[in-house]
Amino acid sequence: MLMLTFPLLLSSSILFMNLSHPLSMGLILLVQTMLISLTLGLSSYSFWFSYILFLVFLGGMLVLFIYVSSLAPNEIFFSLDLFIMFFIFMSIFTIIALVMDPILSNFSHISLPLSSLDYFNSTPYTINWIYNSPSMIFTIFIVSYLLLALIIIVKIINLFKGPLRLLT
């Protein structure tokens, strides 16, 4: 599964460089965030850190989406050439990843023993180091900084003024 997410990340990065509309760029960023969260969740002991990362990034993307949609003109941002190029890159990188995958290239080992699945349960990639003694102070500092920034932003925003443009 990890070998399939890397070609998707690479092809979406190439597609991102060729886009010009901010809403389509936001969509590609959202896809990349889902792929990075999936990769992080599969390579660590639990999915909690990737869930939190995805939810925080999704909240930020929602704020950016509201801001950009109020500024961007209402134009069609779908281009057939970019869509075809995206699927060509995605299919090429997926085929390369499938060919280079050692499990799929050697068909005699398709049925994995159950002992090889215990590898993921014994990996040392846990997120306990965030909450342990040396880095606990840094984590508390980051949480309090984000809370303070949230309170300051709420106080700065004037609730009596409307959005940047009228939604008609």
From TrEMBL:
Family matches, as InterPro entries: ComplexI_Subunit6
Membrane topology per record: Multi-pass membrane protein
GO molecular function per UniProt: NADH dehydrogenase (ubiquinone) activity
Catalytic reaction annotation: a ubiquinone + NADH + 5 H(+)(in) = a ubiquinol + NAD(+) + 4 H(+)(out)
Spans through the membrane: 46-68, 80-100, 136-157
Domain of life: Eukaryota
Family indicated by similarity: Belongs to the complex I subunit 6 family.
Name recorded for this polypeptide: NADH-ubiquinone oxidoreductase chain 6
Organism in which the protein naturally occurs: Macrophthalmus darwinensis
Species lineage: Eukaryota, Metazoa, Ecdysozoa, Arthropoda, Crustacea
Gene name of the record: nad6
